[in-house]
């Protein structure tokens, strides 16, 4: 199982701090440095293109870029450009986002999200490969080709964030794999992995990759860590798609899903994910002090 680092947004320290975090992850031997596209904040792919020039030795990926605001042509143009800047080390993670964001903030329709995802991929994937696309769906039309760099060098793997069975089947039939969040080991083992793997096999595609994102804090003060998690990740217990995953796992809220405790405890949780079929753990550190932050980073390095 590979180990990835879930980087933060441009906050304290700005871009220089992000370079330092990515460099530290690369030096520790971590496999991927992931960035989210957070509404109203810096563009994740632009940042990763810059990191691709400044930080060697680690893959860089989005986890994830929402599809609705970017036409497949725009997504493919930017993704292929970023992969060119990264020397072929970029992975494109995309997802639907959520109805309150798509409708409430962007003023777009969230009607039939599965249809949107299917039509989006029908248009996007040929463009990523450097091929002509002739996509004509109910909501998305795309005709033409993206010619950024050499087709073989500039095409990044595409991961579809998927939680429900139909989205997982779509990911298995079309993409490199999936990226999950707020999805526990039992759900991964009984629902996520078998659903996407069976769909890939039926489509004669390679076994898909499973990138599982988890909040992590190695600490002796478990009560404090869980209290902080309940605040930091509260929104994920309210969004319907994540709430469904927590309910499937039998958990009250996001704090119950976090990987928290001493090294032995956290190692046990990581082993559960490995056994469930996760191919990469993407760790989102949320410690509120320097000592535990360093301790969590050191623990991640031991997993390589």
In short:
Helices cover 47% and strands 19% of the residues.
Description:
The mean pLDDT is about 95. The strands form two sheets. This protein has an eight-stranded parallel barrel with strand order 1-2-3-5-8-9-10-12, surrounded by six helices. About 45% of the residues lie in helices and about 20% in strands. It has a single domain (about 1-65, about 85-95, about 160-300), classed as TIM Barrel. The chain has helices at about 15-25, 45-55, 70-85, 100-105, 115-130, 150-155, 165-175, 185-200, 220-230, 240-250, 265-275, 290-300, and strands spanning about 1-5, 30-35, 60, 65, 90-95, 135, 140-145, 160, 175-180, 210-220, 260, 280-285. The chain is of the alpha/beta class and about 300 residues long. It starts with a strand and ends with a helix. The protein contains twelve helices and twelve strands. It is globular.
Please mark out the parts with pLDDT under 50 across 5 or more consecutive residues, or reply none.
none
| Rounded radius of gyration (Å) | 19 Å
The number of E-state strands comes to 12
Q: What is the CATH C level class, in words?
A: Alpha Beta
> CATH homologous superfamily name?
Luciferase-like domain
Helix proportion: 40-55%
CATH architecture: Alpha-Beta Barrel
Q: Structural class from helices and strands? A: alpha/beta
With strands numbered from the N-terminus, the spatial order across the biggest sheet is: 1-2-3-5-8-9-10-12
In percent terms, what proportion of residues is strand? Answer: 15-25%
Termini distance? 8 Å
């Amino acid at each position: 199982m590979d180990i990835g680092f879930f980087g933060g947004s441009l906050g304290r320290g700005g871009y220089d701090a992000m370079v330092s975090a990515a460099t530290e992850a690369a030096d520790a031997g971590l496999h991927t440095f992931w960035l989210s596209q957070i509404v109203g904040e810096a563009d994740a792919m632009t940042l990763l293109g810059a990191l691709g020039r400044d930080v060697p030795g680690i893959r860089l990926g989005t986890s994830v870029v929402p599809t609705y605001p970017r036409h497949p042509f725009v997504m493919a143009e930017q993704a292929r450009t970023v992969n060119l800047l990264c020397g072929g080390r970029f992975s494109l993670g995309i997802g639907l986002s959520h109805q309150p964001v798509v409708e409430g903030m962007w003023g777009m329709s969230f009607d039939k999200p599965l249809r949107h995802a299917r039509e989006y991929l029908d248009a996007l994937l040929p463009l990523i490969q450097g091929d002509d696309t002739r996509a004509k769906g109910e909501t998305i039309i795309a005709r033409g080709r993206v010619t950024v760099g050499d087709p073989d060098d500039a095409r990044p793997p595409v991961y579809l964030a998927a939680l429900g069975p139909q989205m997982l089947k779509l990911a298995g039939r079309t993409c490199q794999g999936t990226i999950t969040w707020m999805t526990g080991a039992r759900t991964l083992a009984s629902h996520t992995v078998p659903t996407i793997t069976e769909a890939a096999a039926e489509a004669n595609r390679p076994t898909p990759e499973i990138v599982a994102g988890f909040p992590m804090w190695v600490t002796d003060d478990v009560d404090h860590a869980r209290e902080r998690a309940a605040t930091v990740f509260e929104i994920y217990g309210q969004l319907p798609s994540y709430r469904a995953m927590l309910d499937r796992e039998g958990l009250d809220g996001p704090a119950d899903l976090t990987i928290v405790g001493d090294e032995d405890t956290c190692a046990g949780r990581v082993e559960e994910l490995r056994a469930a079929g996760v191919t990469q753990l993407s760790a989102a550190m949320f410690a509120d002090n320097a000592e535990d932050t360093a301790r969590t980073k050191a623990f991640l390095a031991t997993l390589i």
